[in-house]
Design brief:
- With 292 residues, the chain is α/β, with parallel strands linked by helices.
- It has a single domain (3-223), classed as Rossmann fold (3-Layer(aba) Sandwich), CATH 3.40.50.10310.
- The protein is 49% helix and 8% strand.
- Strands 1, 2, 3, 4 and 5 form a five-stranded parallel sheet that branches.
- Strand 4, helix 4 and strand 5 form a beta-alpha-beta unit.
């Protein structure tokens, strides 16, 4: 399949039908427009999520990639940044219903699995996207995964930074024309040290991208085979992660659960998801809640 024809908006109707017949899976990339230092394009989040999905569809041999949705929860207090909903808002009135309506539409179009991939990491954005996946899996009775892309490469050392080594390297590999690494020296925050400039590279970005793309492609193929029992186990695992994130937010601070992922080495989500080891994801969620 040609890489361009994975993109819904660029397809002719016959190409759409062929892609769905080949693999009835839809990818929904999410992001926002937000300051990512002087060295990165402002649309980094959506750009990388979209390109990862396009390449995954090509590798999987079918499927359709919806246009990236720009506009999420949270965002830095920086120039050229659009904040649709506050980072610390407990209630969500825009993103959740928008995503759910898209899922209903995808189901109506005949897709049998949905992958929502967010490249924007506002902590509540991550919670909402995962909640939508679990809820829509139950509502539609088809697998719906909602996850940040870095969770699929946690075990490769990609921990989901903001305009740091990981994100810069990913964009540098996926869209090299959109990274001007030398401009970071003009940035008093991101260029305060040479750590990002020295640590980032297209080669590192390729390492992360290859793993994410291969896992997305594998999921796109395997999710179609999940039975009722598998879906129930998946939802239970995803809800356990949500509960851990929300509990830690309530009793500690918004990023407490995510710090646990790093400090306790809980970086196996991508592999466990691929291998359908959902009970172990639940165990990981239990460890995330141990704040002592």
């Amino acid at each position: 399949m040609n890489i361009d024809t994975a993109q819904w908006e660029r397809m002719l109707p016959t190409e759409f039908r062929e892609a769905v017949d080949a693999l009835p899976v839809v990818f929904l990339p999410l992001g926002t427009v937000e300051w990512h230092g002087e060295h990165n394009a402002l649309g980094l989040d959506s750009l990388k999520a979209h390109e990862l999905c396009v390449r995954a569809a090509k590798l999987a041999g079918g499927g359709v990639v919806h246009p990236a949705v720009y506009g999420g929860m949270g965002g830095l207090d920086k120039p050229a940044t659009v904040v649709m909903e506050p980072e610390l808002a407990w209630e969500n009135t825009l993103l959740r219903p928008w995503l759910e309506q898209l899922c209903y539409e995808f189901h109506r179009q005949g897709f049998k699995a949905i992958i929502i991939l967010t490249g924007h990491y506002g902590h509540n954005q991550q919670i909402v996207v995962r909640e939508v996946g679990a809820r829509m899996t139950e509502r539609l009775q088809i697998p719906v995964l909602g996850t940040p892309e870095y969770w699929l490469a946690h075990d490769a050392g990609y921990l989901g930074d903001h305009a740091g080594i990981g994100e810069t390297s990913l964009l540098w590999f996926l869209h090299p024309e959109l990274v001007a690494i030398d401009r970071i020296r003009q940035d008093p925050e991101y260029g305060a040290t040479d750590m990002i400039e020295r640590g980032s590279s297209p080669e590192l970005g390729k390492q992360y991208a290859d793993l994410i793309i291969s896992r997305l492609a594998s999921l796109a193929q395997s999710m179609l085979l999940w039975n009722d029992t598998t879906r129930v186990a998946f939802v239970r695992a995803e809800r356990a992660l949500i509960s851990a994130q929300v509990k830690c937010w309530r009793i500690a601070d918004p990023w407490a659960a995510w710090r646990k992922l790093i400090t306790q080495g809980l970086t196996q989500y991508g592999r466990l998801l691929i291998e359908r080891r959902f009970s172990e994801i639940e165990q990981m969620a239990e460890q995330m809640q141990e704040l002592s």
